[in-house]
């Protein structure tokens, strides 16, 4: 179909401009194969804004950046996640990483975990459940410790979802029946059953909006970073910069988990591969 026959004409120049903004502001690379996705998602913004073509939309994006840029980012980012996705990471965290990290922090009694690209919150809540289980098993030894999980994302909509901590029962397959009972309250909303995260895991998580390519406001270092299925949107040069910054903000020992389709080969030599997309900082 010719682009001229669409509801909102999008020229090659329009698409080049849009993906230029995406790369400059977020580091996200929008390949040619993403053109249809970009069109369909931004067409919704055109309808909301009452514009008739992408020339007008780009003008609004450039002239009112603070407002529209947030909507733009929310539109082009994809958020696919689930509780305990890639479960071997959480098993490794519980059985190996947390015992080592807590032993290393006996002087400060402080542990910090970062879920970078947390989407709608299933990952940080899975982390919180894992941490709570560890603390429950070691309640005497680690009572009163300062443990927090920072959950960040570029998309303000998914962060709001995470802060509310409300999830559909139908979409909670990764949770065991025991975890659902222990860590969530269930509400019957007529045709829909919902799970609401209990305070004992909500209190461990801080949700904040963050562009990974901009300056990070965090002052202290982290013990563990989960950055899974995020860098697939970045080119190699951006990945090199990002993983170098992760190494800088990780303690030693410090652990990094990435997505199953990602790897650090020829990207950085600052982590040792442990198998299963699990890495440990080496320098």
TrEMBL record:
EC number: 2.1.1.80
Entry keyword set: Methyltransferase, S-adenosyl-L-methionine, Transferase
Record bears the keyword Methyltransferase: yes
Top-level taxon: Bacteria
Pfam families according to UniProt: CheR, CheR_N
Enzymatic reactions: L-glutamyl-[protein] + S-adenosyl-L-methionine = [protein]-L-glutamate 5-O-methyl ester + S-adenosyl-L-homocysteine
The protein, known as: Chemotaxis protein methyltransferase
Organism name: Litoribrevibacter euphylliae
């Amino acid at each position: 179909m010719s682009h001229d026959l669409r509801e909102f004409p999008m020229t090659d120049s329009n698409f080049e401009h849009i993906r230029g903004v995406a790369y400059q502001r977020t580091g996200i690379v929008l390949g040619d194969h993403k053109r249809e996705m970009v069109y369909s998602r931004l067409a919704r913004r055109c309808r909301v804004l009452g514009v008739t073509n992408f020339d007008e939309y780009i003008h609004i994006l450039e002239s009112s950046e603070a407002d529209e840029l947030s909507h733009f980012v929310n539109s082009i980012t994809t958020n696919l996640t689930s509780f305990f996705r890639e479960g071997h990471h959480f098993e490794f965290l519980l059985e190996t990483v947390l015992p080592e990290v807590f032993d290393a922090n006996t002087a400060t009694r402080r542990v910090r975990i970062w879920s970078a690209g947390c989407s709608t919150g299933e990952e940080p809540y899975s982390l919180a459940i894992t941490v709570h289980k560890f603390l429950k098993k070691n309640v005497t030894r680690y009572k009163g410790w300062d443990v927090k999980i920072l959950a960040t994302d570029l998309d303000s909509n998914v962060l709001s979802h995470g802060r509310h901590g409300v999830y559909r029962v139908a979409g909670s397959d990764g949770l065991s029946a025991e975890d659902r009972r222990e860590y969530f309250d269930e509400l019957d909303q007529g045709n829909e059953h919902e799970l609401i995260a209990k305070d004992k895991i909500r209190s461990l998580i801080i949700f904040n909006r963050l562009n990974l390519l901009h300056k990070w406001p965090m002052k202290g270092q982290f013990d563990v970073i989960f950055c899974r299925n995020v860098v697939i949107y970045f080119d190699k040069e951006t990945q090199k910069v990002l993983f170098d910054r992760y190494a800088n903000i990780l303690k030693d020992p410090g652990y990094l988990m990435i997505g199953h389709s990602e790897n650090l080969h020829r990207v950085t030599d600052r982590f040792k591969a442990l198998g299963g997309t699990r890495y440990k900082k080496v320098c």
